[in-house]
Design goal:
Three copies of one chain form a homotrimer. Helices cover 20% and strands 29% of the residues of chain A. Chain A has helices at residues 19-30, 48-58, 101-106, 132-145, 194-200, 253-256; strands spanning 6-11, 35-40, 67-71, 82-86, 91-95, 113-117, 154-156, 169-171, 174-182, 188-193, 209-213, 216-218, 220-221, 235-238, 243-247, 264-269. In chain A, strands 8, 9, 10, 11, 12, 13, 14, 15 and 16 form a nine-stranded mixed β-sheet that branches. In chain A, strands 2-1-3-5-4-6-7 form a seven-stranded mixed β-sheet, sandwiched between helices. Chains in contact: A-B, A-C, B-C.
Chain lengths: 270, 270, 270
Amino acid sequence: MLAKPIITLTTDFGLKDPFVGLVKGVILSINPEAEIIDITHNISQHNIFEASQIISMSCRYFPPTTIHVVVVDPGVGGGRRPLLVITEDYYFIGPDNGLFTPIYEEFQSSFFKVMHLTASHYFLPMNGSTFHGRDVFAPAAAWLSKGIDVFKFGEQITDYVTIPSIKATIKGDIVNGNVISIDIFGNAVTNITTKILAKLTPDIEKSRYRVKYKGAELPLVNYYADSSAFGNGLSAVINSFGHLEIFFYKENAASKYNVNIGDSVEVALI
Amino acid sequence: MLAKPIITLTTDFGLKDPFVGLVKGVILSINPEAEIIDITHNISQHNIFEASQIISMSCRYFPPTTIHVVVVDPGVGGGRRPLLVITEDYYFIGPDNGLFTPIYEEFQSSFFKVMHLTASHYFLPMNGSTFHGRDVFAPAAAWLSKGIDVFKFGEQITDYVTIPSIKATIKGDIVNGNVISIDIFGNAVTNITTKILAKLTPDIEKSRYRVKYKGAELPLVNYYADSSAFGNGLSAVINSFGHLEIFFYKENAASKYNVNIGDSVEVALI
Amino acid sequence: MLAKPIITLTTDFGLKDPFVGLVKGVILSINPEAEIIDITHNISQHNIFEASQIISMSCRYFPPTTIHVVVVDPGVGGGRRPLLVITEDYYFIGPDNGLFTPIYEEFQSSFFKVMHLTASHYFLPMNGSTFHGRDVFAPAAAWLSKGIDVFKFGEQITDYVTIPSIKATIKGDIVNGNVISIDIFGNAVTNITTKILAKLTPDIEKSRYRVKYKGAELPLVNYYADSSAFGNGLSAVINSFGHLEIFFYKENAASKYNVNIGDSVEVALI
């Protein structure tokens, strides 16, 4: 563990209620040395897929041994299991409802393990069934950050829940993908990545592409403001996460052009 | 005081303006060791009752000696007094407008004291009258967190302001209560608590109850997803704060069923 | 540098996406000792003027050597330069698009310097052009907070970009100003400051003023609740930043009276 262990929080709790503050109070009551960082608390309510995308794109920007707590948990209090996922660099704590699916796919190694959290002496005493973020996941993360051995938290399992992943596909010279998220600026992020484009061509940067969306061809530019060279219409860019993104310079592409999650996008080599 | 003293913030400042950031800047300028935790900054504007409920349900999840700063302060700059409330485990700092009413009720002990903050050398020099969160409450909390004796901040008072509390009442075998808050998920929290139910029956968990809301009977379930066994309509649960809560699984009960703060709820022993 | 160096963040990133969390992850990966404080992430999107006002009114409430990172950056990835601005007490890091204009005006001294950040070994390796907050500004701030000499980050420049400032003007005994921002309470802050009023009269506090807005005369009161003595209509107050502010006690003046940024306000000596 780090001298100042880092615990991140990703939830659908919002910022109106005191829920996030209480999670932090519980963590600091157990480990005053923990550094707690909010990734976001504005996941769409009960949206497990969205949370899975966010944690997958975010986790690598934190130092090794960071503990990522993710709570989007419509099944709270029922039979779904609380989990601790261990990868080479990170720990993940949250409910067994599929929100770690991309973690299971991307972080396989000899270190990979999924534990069912059963050691309830590491939880708060529970008076109700609606807030395991505070009563189960927060204290488990805090005790883990103090260096408690992972095997003390429960039993290893292999039948953890997964959700279907939405991957781009390749047919000949064409990649077919979808919009998977829309950010607060109205930019539409797709699942077409530089990794997939690399399967089309050995030299991504020197190749030229045709991007098609809703029947129209979009210019693929190098940076947002660059779209002015093409008349500033709907454009595409490879964003800083390595994903193809559809945007409209300084405006909200999603609301202006009715771009929605799930929309098809096509990229072809020219 | 803790090695890393904790100061929490509960306000109606919102997160658009820099107000919260400035409060933190002032605290850290005085005590760089302070750990500052946001409980919420989205209290409804000027809503003293709401703030009083939030701090009362939140304060116990922080370690002893935590300093809770609460600023919902429509009277800022006028005659209302700035206060420091001392209880066995916590400190509370904020304006004397009733927002600490539940603290006065729940934390009586030989440690209980209310001080009128008058030692203005612990405040920032003031150029205006509109931001005592930054100029009075933040520096007082920061100096307190450095271990300044509480008696140096002002004089003890006993005529502090209170607001009416909204308590559930018992008549025979029936508890009458009200919705006192609605969370961001649309769940409606009532003032009917396990503490009150314990006055109806010696064994809360084994007893059976009838919950009535707007003329209809609601199933009382063990956890949110459990309401599917009853057709997933409007349901009730004892939440993790020990309060009866009305909810609709995975949907917004408050907007779907027009649930409002103040609505009557009845619980009867069967 | 401080033992616990402070880095503040002011952006238009919002709190829905993980952008702010990633900026913090990058900073802590480089300097685990950094204390990161959010000023706000809700600057109106792409609004450079608003960001410039916010950082100018906020920066002084943090301890000397604080590093203020400001990212409102529609030109990200293009030709605009990343900057490090050095003043007697603070560092400022962000894009060269004018958002530091008030800093250039107010913090001139023998310490004042503007550096073009060119030492890319202090940046993250870049896979895209859309997120320099994470890839350029965050790591530069983190390395600076570790004590790296400012001259190692790039070259000094003098042709930095500025935006027009909107200053109040004096004609005879009358100050003409404008609404420059509206806070979350609906209070309208003007650019008429105590500094400007001091040019009208040697004794600001004892002088009497007439405030005119939209043809009507507004009472100038000492604190918000004081406006009840004048019938609680639209009123003016000198706020805690030393600016004349138009408000309506406990209500949203901006929406109730259609107050907008840019509106004219006049103050005259009586």
